[in-house]
Amino acid sequence: MSQMRQETFQIAVRSGQQQRMLEELRAASPLTYYDSDWRLGTIKLANGQELKAEMRYNLMARALEMHRPGPPARPDTVLLLPQFQAAQFSTALPSVYREFVAHPYKSEQSKRDYNLFEKLTTASGPVQLLLLHEVVLQSSATASITPGGTGKPANQSIQRVSRLYAHVPKRPIAQETGLNKSAILKLFGDDANRMAAYATAHNLSFTDLGHVVQLVDEYNKTVQP
Length: 225
What we know:
Structural class: alpha+beta
Number of strands: 13
Oligomer: single chain
């Protein structure tokens, strides 16, 4: 790929020092991206418009990077589309289809936030399971500063984490849920006993994410409107 020019739209401004550190980590780690390769996919904007483009999801910036080839005399362009402008997007990994949807949620700090989630359930219905993928900065050592003003800064590393969220009709925002029997059955309300019996009959484990997705899809197909 030819040299690329980057255009940034409405991305939150970070402090200069933090931005430099993030850029260094991004260049050094593919974990910054959900998938570091460019994939052809479809984006649905918040205004309803749809477009097709080569893209990759930048977890650190919470933005889609869209690749636009330039003419021979000019570099290619990378457009950053923030999560609040992309209602949803889908892309095909090798033999796997992935869909992401933008959704309000309660963050770890119990604050209302907005982000792009990987949609796990395929059947439309009242309960949706979502995965939130994030990258976090980790300090592997404490900075040591001498009285003279010199010292060794803390080593910084990047780590990718994924957390399970659920959205149900009684909650206006998605909330984190545990991967256990109590937390999952709570999502079904009055149908909890019926779904527990279904899980037992089909040998579904409440600690296996694939089994839980199967259970929720079954609920969405059979629940009475």
